[in-house]
Structures are given as C-alpha cells and as structure tokens.
Amino acid sequence: MSINIPELRVFVTAAEELNFSRAAARLHLSQSAVSQNIQSIEKNYGVELFVRHGRSVQLSEVGQVILPMAREVLNTVRLLEDSLINVKGEVAGELTIGCSTTSGKYILPNLLAAFRREYSLVRSRVTISSRSGVVERLLDQTLALGVMSRQVEHRDLEYMPLLEDKVILIVPIDHPWAQYGRAMPADLLDQPFIRREESSGTAEVVSNALKQQGVMPDTLNVVMELGNAEAIEMAVEEGIGIAFVSELVAARGLALGRIKQVEINGLDIVQRIYLYRHVGSVFTRAEARFWEFVQENRAQILSDAIGNLSGVTPAA
Fold this sequence. Notes:
Mean pLDDT: 88
Helix content: 40-55%
CATH architecture of one domain: 3-Layer(aba) Sandwich
Distance between the termini: 70 Å
Largest sheet: 8 strands, mixed
Number of strands: 12
C-alpha cells in the first residue's frame, strides 16, 4: 500500500477549508470527487480523518496528527517536481499566489501576464480567500506568495510594497455632486451610502479616514452593505447611493461616464497593497524569480496596468 499524492492533496485542501464544497472549488473538482478521495484514504488505512456534522466537518485526532506531515510531503513533492522541470536551467512549473484584496485581483493578472511574457513555461494560478486564510496558508507554507491590503507583522513573514491604491468616492451621474465634483466631509451624513462589509481592508481605511475628519462611520446613512466591490460600483451606477471604492474598481465606470468621482475636502485615502512570503520557505525557481521580477519591474508594470484598466477613452 502506498501513499496517493493526489488524494493527499485533496485531504490537505479539505483540512484547510473544513468544507468539502470550498475544497472542491479550490481544486477544480466536484464535491463528490473530494468525498471519494477522502473516503479512499480512510478505507485504505482504516482511519477517520474528519468528524462530520451535517454539512460541516472537523479534523479528527488522526487528521490533526497527519496534517503537518501531509503538508511536508506535498512540499517535498513540489520541490522535487520543480527540480525535475528546471533541470535545464529554465524557469518553469507552477506559480500559485493567494489574494485577499480587490485591488490585488485587478493588478495580479497584469503582473502575471508581464511575467509570463518572459517566462512562458510558468503556469500561474491565483486563489482568492480571506486575509486570515492567506496568512494561515503562508505560515504553514502551503502557499508561497500572498497579496494583502493590510500589513501583517510576523517574524516568519516578509513583504514588499506592491501598490498604493487610491480609495475614491463615486456617485451616480445624475447626482447633484456630479456637476461640481467636490463636497465637504459633513455633507456625507445626508447621503445614502453603500459600503463594504466591516471586515474588508477598504472599509477599515475609509473608517479611519472619516474619523480623522470628524465623521463617525456609524452616523452615515447606510442603505446597503455588499461584500463585493464590483457589486458596489454597479449599485452606484444604478443610482442606489454613493460609495467609497478602489480607484481600480471604478476606473472603467468612470471612463465610460457611468459614474462620477467626487473629491471630499481634506480626505485623501490610500490603501497599500503588499506581496508576502514566508522567510523560511524553500521556493521553486518560478516563485523566487517572480518575487525578484516584481521588485525589478513593479513600477512600470503597475503604471501600465492602471492605464489599461479603463480600456476606453474617457467620456467628456
């Protein structure tokens, strides 16, 4: 009897998600395929890896014991595959990056496209999860690189600045402020607001900036809360209210004339985006080269990416 590496990969992913449906989405498998892989390990070794409670699962004692070892095996396999792929000195293999921020989702495709133009043998994959999920996977070294919008101070993590993303106020095109393009902080209190969920990085930087201007976030007239920045931009287009969003998210709507940006006197909100990695990890050639590539080229690539986001000539 031998360890089945694909089954082991399914187990580790399911253990990280504690949800077979989310694990299936990450692995691009069906939920039944995830269950079958887990059951195969359990049947072959006569153990129970998960304790099932309806739709939720928890790691069993056996599952908790073997999880660190399973991760170590998969990491060894990853490095072995990388050595075999790169034996000729080429940069090749898979590059996986975790991302927890809207701004990162917009900028990573441009960075990865530029990277692939130089290293065409590299396969790139971006996984979207919560900030805590990215941090956890970086710390347990099941993820080599992560993009987040908040600084995480941890002795095992290092980071580099990736982007300074402006957070701007957008309003519907027929809003009274659209004509003037400027308002006072106190004027915000009378407006219908659409906002992100409080746990988001954007919500945090907006809240802190408003407090500095004497506007308490809980005094705003919030008519809708959404967990997706793109949905917020669309809600503003529909005239439901006004909102603070990433300039990257708003770029296309502004260029098409579907929304308007309004400056708030004294309010200049910047959200910093960082690229993280674990200081103790042994990186594949693709992972190590991507880190260097970002350091060397990020200014030009990010400038080009922001310019390309609108994709159209701005409306008059």
